Amino acid sequence: MSTILLLISSNVFMTFAWYGHLKYGHDWPLWKAILVSWGIALLEYCLAVPANRLGYGEFTGFQLKIIQEVVTLMVFIVFAILFLKEKLAWNYIVAFAFLGGAAFFAFAFKAGEAAA
Questions:
Q1: Residue 43 domain-assigned?
Q2: How many domains in the chain?
Q3: If we measure between CA atoms, which residue out of 16, 56, 59 comes closest to residue 38?
Q4: Which residues, other chains included, contact 78 with Cβ-Cβ below 8 Å and sequence gap of 6+?
Q5: Ramachandran region of residue 59, left (φ > 0), alpha (ψ -120 to 50) or beta?
Q6: 91 assigned to some structural domain
Q7: Considering the entire predicted model, what is its pTM?
Q8: Which helix (H) or strand (E) segment is 86 a member of?
Q9: Residue 10 lies in a domain
Q10: pLDDT in tens, 46-98
Q11: Between the chain's N and C termini, which has fewer beta carbons within 10 Å?
Q12: Is 28 part of any domain?
């Protein structure tokens, strides 16, 4: 569970690092947006690296990556709606549902054991 919570926290920082400047940073020079984003991304790495270290063994590398992507999409949906004030269209919901189906198949069947 700590792996999932760390991944969620890291993704909040990652989402703001990658997309936060889209709302307020249009007047910034590109170099400033990059530097601010790198600063935020450092916090993201400080959470993502321990999350993956703690999770590896409980999950496979493939499963960790799939968890990461699902968490990223969930965090981004909330971010886009609340921060960017974008509408969630039906086609995005269908696309996310297909990605959720992919995550189901990654965890529903035993394909291999976690590395020791």
A1: yes
A2: 1
A3: 16
A4: none
A5: beta
A6: yes
A7: 0.80
A8: none
A9: yes
A10: 999 999 999 999 999 988 998 998 899 999 999 999 999 999 999 999 998 99
A11: C
A12: yes
Give DSSP secondary structure letters for 6-65: HHHHHHHHHHHHHHTHHHHGGGS-HHHHHHHHHHHHHHHHHHHHHHHHHHBTTB-HHHHH
The span from the CA of 2 to the CA of 81, in Å, is 26
pLDDT tens for residues 29-38?
999 989 999 9
**The total number of residues written for the chain in this structure:** 116
**For residue 25, how many other CB atoms are within 10 A of its CB?**
15
Q: What is the spatial distance between Cα 85 and Cα 79, in angstroms, rounded to a whole number?
A: 8
- Cα(116)–Cα(56) distance, integer angstroms: 9
Q: For residue 104, what are the domain limits?
A: 2-108
Q: Which residues of 53-65 are buried (b: 16+ CB within 10 A; e: fewer)?
A: eebeeebbeebbe
